[in-house]
Structure formats: C-alpha cells, structure tokens
User: Fold these one by one.
Assistant:
Number 1:
Amino acid sequence: MKLIVGLGNPGSSYEGTRHNVGFEVLAELGMRWRVARPKRKFEAELQDAVFQDQKIVLAAPQTFMNLSGRSIQQVVQFYQIPFGDILVVCDDMNLKLGQLRLRPTGSAGGQKGLQSILQVCGTEGIPRLRIGVGRPPEQMDVSAYVLSKFRKDEVPQIDNSIRNAASGIEIWIRDGTAAAMNVMNPLLTDPKDGHPQDGHPKDGQGEGKKK
C-alpha cells in the first residue's frame, strides 16, 4: 500500500489558492482513478484507490497546513505504511510557477505542512513532490501570497502542472522514485501557453482538471 498526501487548507475560501495545489493533485488523481467520495477519518479526507493493482490511500489533512503532521501520523500508524511508500505533495515558493521537483528525502525547505509531517514522523526520509507557485512580489507578505488565488493568466499553467504531477505520481507508484524523478524534475511549463517545454509524463490517461 502507498499513501499519497496532498497538502492544503480546508474550506471553500481556500479553493484555488497557491497553498492548495496538493489538494488539486489529489482531485486529479481521484478523477482519473474514479474513486469514491472521501470519508472523514483521522482528521483527514481519505479515499481508497487502486492503480495497476497497487492499493493507494489518498489523504487530504483537514487540520490546516501547519498541523498536517497530526493527521498523517494517525493515518501512517493505522495503515502501517513505511515512510518510503508515502508521497507528500505540496506547494513551493522557491520553484518557478509550474515547476515540479520530486525528492526522496530532505528538509522541509520552509513548507510548514511538510515540516509538520517530518517532525511528527521523526524522519526526513519521506518522498515529497513540490509544485512551484513562484515568489511573491517584494511588497507582499509571504502568508498572504500563498493564501492568494492564482491569477487568471496563471491558471492554464498551474492546471497543466497539476496534470503533469498526477502523471508523474502514476510513474512513482509503478516504477519508483528514481524513475519518476527522471521524468518530472526536468519539466518546466512554458508561461506563454502552459505547455511543458521538455515533454510531459506519458502515463497519465485522465482528462484534464476543470475549474
């Protein structure tokens, strides 16, 4: 069994914000795999899925970002999932808009939800997929920026990245972290048209996410 954690903040007021791209990736996967509606358990919305005969749990913590670890610790303990079979999907201001970066280990890099999970689980050995949301303007508060919605001109690009992220996760499930890194990490969507500059993961079969 594998656990895919999408990070974000619960509630309609946070939909479409930069901090919630992890939730958006789970929604894309859920649509592709035709999963049932989420159930509320362990302070998260959980969905059971199967991809190529592999059992998957999709988890969206409902604790708000900074306390994500409290929820995920409960999920991990209940399902007894090894840390290497967990993938945390989150936003990253240090990456260009739409850029993807998968790593098997490392620090939280300032991402509060990921930091909470690593601290509670007591390890940095949890794979994570970061989705770039760009840096805020100099005069803008960081917290206000990550809680802001994507601009209209940014939506096609971030939607494309969410689809690419979902396709990369399918590679991660089937072929492992190294194979998925080789596909996802070179990608950077073109801000002019939202298409990847260097190709795209080829395994995703689902339709694109709609807003």
Number 2:
Amino acid sequence: MPRSQLETDRLILQRFSRRDHNTLDDAIRSSLPDLNQWLPWARLDYEHGDTNAFIRDSLQAWKEDRAWDYSVRLKEQPDRHVANVSMWTVSQLGKIAEFGYWVRSDEISKGICTEAVGRLLEEAFTSLSYHKVTLRIAIGNDASDRVAKKLGFIREGVLREELLIRGNWIDHSLWSLIDREYRSLHRSRVQA
C-alpha cells in the first residue's frame, strides 16, 4: 500500500479525509466547464452529495487496498485543493497500475500535475515495485498528453470508443511507462 502522504519541493499529496469536502468541492465546481468534456463524473449538474460520495468511496478503496486517491495541495497553500492524482492496480500478477489525474482550471500550465504524477510514479516504481504504469487519455486532451510526454510515457495506441461521456463514445490514447524506462529517465535527470 502506498504512503498516505507524499511530498515534493512544493506539493503535498495526501489521502482524502472527510474534512476535505469543501476544498475539493470548490476545485471541482470551479473546473467543471473544463473537466466536463473529459471525465464522465464531471457533469454540469454535479452536486455537493457527489463530492461526499467520492470521498466516502475513496476512503473505502484505501481500506480495501484497491485504489489510492490523493488530494494535491501547494505547501504554501495547504488548505486549497489544486489537483487529484489516483492510482489503482490493473493486474497484480503483471504488477501493472493505472493512474488518473486532473488539475483545477486556474492552476493549469504551472507544472503541478507533472510534479504530482512524477511523485506518484516514484512511489509506484520504488516503494511498491510496480513493473508498468498506464494512462488512458481522451483524444483531444492535449494538456494530459503533455504531462505523459514530459514524464517519459510511451504512446502505445488508441482505444476506440473507450468511454461514454455525455452520450458520446470517446476514443482514448493508451500510454505506458515501464520500470526500467523510469529508472533510466530518473538517472538521466539526476545526472543532468
């Protein structure tokens, strides 16, 4: 199981708690117009109860060791939710995890998502010994594609009509990063 709190130089990634409701709800509501096109849960009629349900489900998933959601906060603003990153096991036998992420709209293009996902990758490949991490990104979500590229993920192909969002089947690109690729990239960055 991953640690309940991870840090970078400027970020805190922490497991959700019930007291995160207001700050998470604020981040979601301020970002709904952007998130709506990519994520099935980000409906324009999203309600406070949906935030409660997410936090309840997230806490239960941690208890069951099946998924790990993190609230991302800036160290200089620890009471403000700026992003989510999540990890879940796709194959225990294959040691494969999948990640998901989003950033609140007024924090886009500041490197927050790349930094947070990079920290979770470190946890996945070092502490948890995963062999492979995958991402599924909706075609057209260029910001998420940029995060994948910056972190060294390889685009494997397209998953046709992968997810139904607002009545439309959306294709997704499949990205992956293997442990030896991660170690090689990490060594290169440390030496640079």
Number 3:
Amino acid sequence: MTVEPTTLQLVWFGLIAVLWIGYLVLEGFDYGVGMLIPYLGRNDKERRVLVNTIGPVWDGNEVWLLTAGGATFAAFPGWYATLFSALYLPLFLILIALIVRGLAFEYRAKRPEQSWKYGWDRGASIGSFVVSLVFGVGFSNFVIGLPVQVADGRQGVHVFTGGFWSLFSPFALLGGVVLVALFLFHGAIFIALKTRGEIHQRAKAFAEKIGLGVIGAGGAWLLWSNLAYGTGVPGWILLVVAAGGLVMAWYMVRADRDGWAFIGTAVSTAVIAIGIFLRMYPDLGFDNSSTMDAPLNIVTASASPLTLTIMTWAAVVFVPIVLGYQAWSYWVFRRRLSTANIPDDSPQREPIP
C-alpha cells in the first residue's frame, strides 16, 4: 500500500516526535540526577541538595511523557493499541519504576531516620535506572522494527509476532546501556550546572569520566544504527551532529563551561531522538514485511480527519501555555544550590505521654 499521508497526519507524527524529544532531553537529566543521588551525595544534606536541583521540575518534565502517550492514543489509535499490546511487560515495568521514583521524592522527608531517607534515595536511583534502560532497549527496537501481522479475522487490527525475549537483541541491549550512560552524563552536567562547592566538583569529575564512555558506546550504537538500519545521508548528518555534541559536552565540562556542556548533551539527545523518529517514518517503528497488503503505518493507524482537526486547535491553544509555564518555572529556580542552602533538620519533639 502506497503511503500518502495527509498534512494533519504528518503534523501529528511530527508533534508526537517533538513531545518525545522534549521528554528525553528534559526528563533525561532528571533520570541522571536520580541515578546519582546515592553516589554523589555523601550525607543527607548533600543528597537533599541533589534532590532539590530537580525538585521543582521533575514532575513537570513527566508531563511530556503523558502528553506524548495521550497524543498517540488520540491521533494514531492503531499505533497506540499495537504498541501497548506488543510491549505490555516492558511498559508495565516502566510504570512500576516511575511509581517508585515518584514515591521516593515525595516520601523521603516524611520520617527523620537516615535509613528511611537513604532507602528512598536508592529507590529513586533504581527507578531512574530501570526507566532509562527499558526506554533505551525499546527505542532501539523501534529502529530495528517490531514485527507485526494482521490479526486473524480482524481486518485493520495488527498484532506483534515477536516474543518478549526477542526484544533483547545485542543492538537493543547496547541501546539500553547507551541511554543509561547518556542520561548519567546529562544528569551529572546538570548537577554541575546547578550546584556549588564539593558536590559541583564531584559531579564535574564524574561527568569527565562517564563522558568518555558515552562517546565510545554512543558512537558505536550510532554507527551500527546507520550501517544496519540507516536513513541515508540525513542519518549520517545526524550522527556527526550527535557525536559532535557529546565531544563538545565533554570538552566544556573540562573547561568549566557547564552551560555549554549541558547544551552539548541536550543537542546530542535531541538529535539521536530525531534520527530514531526519522527511521520510524512512515511505519511507526514496525516491520511490515508480513503485512504488505495491509501495513501498519502513519496512514492506516491514524484517527479520523475530524479528530486530528480538533486536536490541532486544542494544541494551538494549550501548548504555548504549557511551554510558557515550564520556561517560567526553570527561570524562577535557576540559581545554584549548595549545602549552605539546606537547613538543619528540626529537633524531634518528645512523644506526648
């Protein structure tokens, strides 16, 4: 079937890609910070500083994920249904990890015991790691293409033909490792950008070390992706830009230019995501080799023109409001933090007899 998408279908595929790019860039440093809380923070005050660097923004950053999921459900219901049925277990694992991570930030200060706080800090770290790893494996599988076929007796309904363990190919596992390392690099640079004193120096030293690993592993994944699943000249251009962003970030960390280093990892993350969505067009990350007569793509998975029109007008009204609010929140909480900004715990009252 020839793919001839309408303008609105192209617009909404592009908007969903933008939402995922925003999520990976913004929530990426959140996950990096979350993974590093128990390791860069040597005591409770330092760990509170790390939590506070993302405290005002982490839940707002997750709105990008919720909006991307909602937009996919409304604009491309066929994509949403097949994707969630194919990746039910990985997505369930992501949900559990996100719940643990959110609880960790909200509950760590509910009791004074250090063991309680450290336990939740470890929960935030594990939750952030799991989400990063699973998303890395998942997006790598979109690059490969998830095999699908038309369900028996159900025209227009597609089912995933692979198994759970088929998702863990060497390429996909490398993608998971790369995304974890990239988010650690991105998060460490954000910590260096947002802190002063010993935590700043510790984060900077960690970023210098992990940065070399990200450049090596990320370069290998990008090269493998372009050689085996490439999109031609645009893919190679994006590879050069992504690799250049990582190298720039590493160099700027060493030069104490934290802002430019953060721009480097942000650009690299965004460009890698652009390359993935470029590969996913027009088959939405699916392998249609078994469904050539009725493929699952941007046209067949789309909602009605009326639905897309209504969604477009809603996006025109509400997206600028959300972007403006989020930009304002980052501006308000732009200053650097240190342990001097963290008050001592208030003394515990004696229990009333």
